[in-house]
Amino acid sequence: MSVKIGFAGFGEVNTPIEVIERKCKKACEDLIKTGAEVFPFYPIRDDYEETYINDAVEYFKGKDFDAMVLCVAGWIPTHAIMKVAEEFKHKPTVLWGLCGWYEDGHLVTTADQAGTSAARIALESAGYTFKYVYDVVKSPSKVEEVVSYCNAAAVKNKLKKTKIGQMGYRDMQLYGTQFDGLAVKRDFGIEIECFEMLEVVQRANKLTAKETEKVIARIKKWKFLKTPDENAVESAAKYYLAIRQIADERKYAAISLKDVDGFKKLLGFPPAPIFTLLAEDGLCTIPENDCMGNITQVIVKGITGQIGAYLEFYEYFNDGVLAGVPDYIPKEIIDGETTILPAAFGELSQGLLNVSKAKQGVLTMCRLACLNGKFTMHVVKGVGKTPETWEECGWDKPAPQLPGLKIELDDTEDFANKVLGQHYIISYGDNVKILTEYCKMNGIRTE
After folding, report:
1. Which residues on neighbouring strands pair with residue 67, listed in sequence order?
2. What's the rounded Cα separation, in Å, for the pair 259 and 62?
3. Phi then psi for 190, rounded to 5 degrees?
4. pLDDT 10s digits, 179-189
5. How many folded domains does the chain comprise?
6. Residues in contact with 302: Cβ distance below 8 Å, sequence separation at least 6, in sequence order
7. What are 237-248's pLDDT values in tens digits?
């Protein structure tokens, strides 16, 4: 996703104009190198007639950008910054101070941080949603910090057009998976729609063998540890196609299904292969009508570009947690082949259990919840490692080795005392900072 940035470059009338132009041009080029689309206007100076200010405002009007960068390339009275910024106060904003340089063995400065120091308190007092970034002499430009914040703003805009589909509601009568539709719409712009399992079954029953043959061929490319029941493969293909039709028609970015009290109880069919197929298509997926999990997923995908796989907790250790899944993991996080084991759990008939191995590495776990009437996101970094051999009690013997990770944490007790549910969304890499910035931008509390 390309982020669109309005770039306003400032410097006062007594600073040589060519210096301000040079510094602003370099900052713009650095932004463009990251892949951002930039709408630049510079220099903006504090002339008495305010010609530069008025021209800048006119330039930015009507431009479609996600965030405004107020780039201070030299000292500038705060009123000049505010008169441009106030026209676009509804946009997330970055106050970016450039820095001086060394010439002939000594420091040359245009007093950039005098400008930003004065403007920072003004922006805060005026209620702007903004981030303050300042470059440091003889250090690399902090352009990545600027773009990171602007990317979070772009995600905020994109989510206003996002729809999530839920087949059924409140699987197993769970509490933490519920949502307040108007609050979600107000704070994220996301629309969550519910559709019925009956519609899925009706669509599936109308599908012909010709329509399902390509999906069956996809399924048979997976690595099977035992020969699957052909009826289970056919059912997976039909249900997948029915749900995919609904998702395509209604433009869903994420899907959750009534799992235990729906597919398993009423149809006798564990939906793991359906989720596996949908995830292969790039849809965010999570079982058990986990609305809050779906919202977390689309946020994570928007910010990181990753699919936002879910894991749930089985055990706490002194140095971390055992997180796994009793059904599937998306291909994106599989280490090796998609591996399927036909197996039964409890009173269920045979299902196509995805037992693929999860990738290891530094990762970020997060979950959104409504805590005391306010949206809160718990975000924590960990290191995912292949766990010891373990099993979930209740599976056919020999019990399958479920997909999972031993996630090492700096402070398990702190994590456990802040945990917001059994399902957490993972992304690889350290994404704590950008997720926290997104939350701050949207008035979401972070833990």
Report:
1. 5
2. 47
3. -85, 140
4. 998 999 998 99
5. 2
6. 1, 154, 155, 158, 159
7. 999 999 999 999
